[in-house]
User: Fold this.
Amino acid sequence: MAKSSLKSTLAVSLNNYLDAGAIVAGGSGISLWQSYLGLSEMHLGWLNAISANALGAAIGAIIGGFLADKFGRKFIFTYNLLVYMLGVLTIMLSVCFPMLLAGFLITGISVGIGVPASWTYISESSEVGNRGRNICISQMSWGFGPMIILLMGMLFAPGGYLYGPVESLAHAVIGADAATAAVEVFSSRVVFFTLFVIAFIAWLLQRQLEESAEFEATKQQAKEQGKQSGLLQSFSVLFSNKTAVKSALFLAAIYLTWNLVASVMGFFSPHICETAGGVSNEEANWMNCIQWATVVGVTFVISHVIDRTSHKLLYVLGLVFALATWLLVVGVGVNGEATLWAFVILWGLNGGISVQIFYALWGSELFPAKFRAGAQGLMFFIVRGLSAAWGLVFTYIYGENGEGFTIAAYCMIALLLISLVVGVAGCPNTRGKSLEQIVKERYGDEA
Assistant:
């Protein structure tokens, strides 16, 4: 892999760390915030709905996609993480539900803004023979985030090895006679502070990146032709092209159906282990830490073969693991320790060969540079927006203590089957081809 490609990929991939890290930081500490602020299951549903897991990211994506195509990928990298830092700072300082909700929303919007530019930039800066591998590196960062955040959550949580310093900090800030719940929630505040630090480092690195050469060429071509770009015009060009519309529908279908399942697992997985599995908060976080370690390990292996192996084969394999996860719930249940571990590991195997890898890869391959980020932003808006609504519905189906888990599992199986069938039917033949070659084959002179 070329040094320049690897360096830029690693810098941009930190956005995925921050994306998944924000989701899991909220999920792993949600019980502490619930106790501190007296939150109901409905409050938890709203936090999930407007967070980086759903609506917040949806709003950000449609904005970020347009801005990345209008002003460049570097424009996003220069300013967006400042918004992210504001969001996590708001969460860190939250003393009431509206403030916590606002922090989740701001962070989510920033995550959404960064996604289209990140995946687009990685693909545009990659060599033909390692585009898939670079996307996998980005996906590994998406796995590292939750793994490290969960590990820190366990260390800082009440009863954890590093809870003593957290407790001392809490008493120093809010007083020695502070309520137990107010002290314990400081462990979550510290975790969000680490995201603030990583976001600052990522911002410093990304500000040094050069603009995408393909974006610069497209911008110059538009200037020479006297074309002006705007949000409505960008969408008009996108929707007036039949090939682009078909590509968008295909990608939205496979990603939406998978992400409706993944969004629930990303935010509620520790909660599911505690309520349906009957384990402690510490055990639940350990299980999910191992799950994310599995994601990282499998993605590392896939990164070495994805550019030389049938994408359809890998796509199917990932969804087989996903379906097995939920078939276990309806067939055996996850009340025992062995079955709960199987549930966790199977989903980790799916995460290592997830639909998101192929969505990120194909999403940047199947559109011309002039509306590449905008198309991804629009699809991400649709997917995460509907995921927000699904997050609220899931809390109703699941119930207070997991009594509706089996019914929820049947819904998950149906969604994953749709993603499998649509993905197999529409899998594009892009492996080993340059972005220019793919665009020429699909759009001809229209590109």
Remarks:
- The first helix runs from residue 3 to 28.
- The CA atoms of residues 137 and 303 lie 7 Å apart.
- The mean pLDDT is 87.
- The two ends are 28 Å apart (CA to CA).
